[in-house]
Amino acid sequence: MVALADLRPTRTAKSLLRRSPRLASVVSLVERRPFEAGELVSEGVRLYYEVHGSGPRVVVLTHGILLDSGMNRRLAADLAERGLRVVLLDLPGHGLSEKPRHASAHRMDSYARHVVNLLDELGIDQAAVGGVSLGANVALQVAVLAPDRVQALVVEMPVLEWAAPGAAMVFLPLLLGVHYAAPLVRLVARLAKRMPDTGVGALDSFVHTLRLEPEEAAAVLHGMLVGPITPTYEQRHAIAVPALVIGHKVDFVHPFTDADHLTRQLPNARLVEAHSIVELRTMPARLTGEIADFLADAFGPWRLRRSSLSPNDGGREAVGQG
What we know:
- With 322 residues, the chain is of the alpha/beta class.
- It has one domain: Rossmann fold, CATH 3.40.50.
- 42% of the residues lie in helices and 16% in strands.
- It is built from 13 helices and nine strands.
- Strand 4 (58-62), helix 3 (73-81) and strand 5 form a beta-alpha-beta unit.
- Helix 6 runs antiparallel to helix 9 (214-226).
- The two termini are 27 Å apart.
């Protein structure tokens, strides 16, 4: 692994932030804390990952569909300051990982195997596993595939049965669009590749999506349609590890009903309602605190480091021994 330099906003971004009080609030989202980056080859596919923090208590997080690790980078750095080692993985077809152009490489169960292979690569026996949207479903699949490797689950915006109509309305037209409008998608990709990163992980993650070639995006979307999306009802009831489920009531692709039903199906789960789909990326203090408290309980007694974040993030000491 190699250490990466601090991420800083571009001169253009700084100028915009100075001129706009509204945009100035984004300053706190610019991620400058360094991390280590590495690669592994899993089932013949080269995958990129990041490691934030250190220590024996490990959390593995994956991202949403067509996005990348950037969307979880602020959360990873915040949890690392609280004493956790957080590993972010770019799934095949996403971010800096290799981008196979066939649908079978993008099945949810295949993604789950890559997470387990990452644990093997890093010599990690057990970890908390989590993710957002696509990543949430991958985490559930990992718990079914390798239950002895999963200590806890952090499931943000799962996509289950109630999401099926909304997901079909979004992803099927998107798949047809990248297929039949490939020249336009290619043009957008060329333009997006000229845009510099801002250092705001969630924003950069979206821009990186625009850089995908149409064949790459189509393979990912097609893969979601040919494989299992979520563990079965019976499999969910058998997932016994502690689970934190985060849902919200604003988005028909991630209906709150799915989060609520999943919480009832998992034997040891609790539900937290987000104020919006972007709360954890734009105003992360409350939900980051919920996640940190949950992980403190899931990992057993351990000392939560005093955070050196902004006053809004309110670091504190947890009960337990270091």
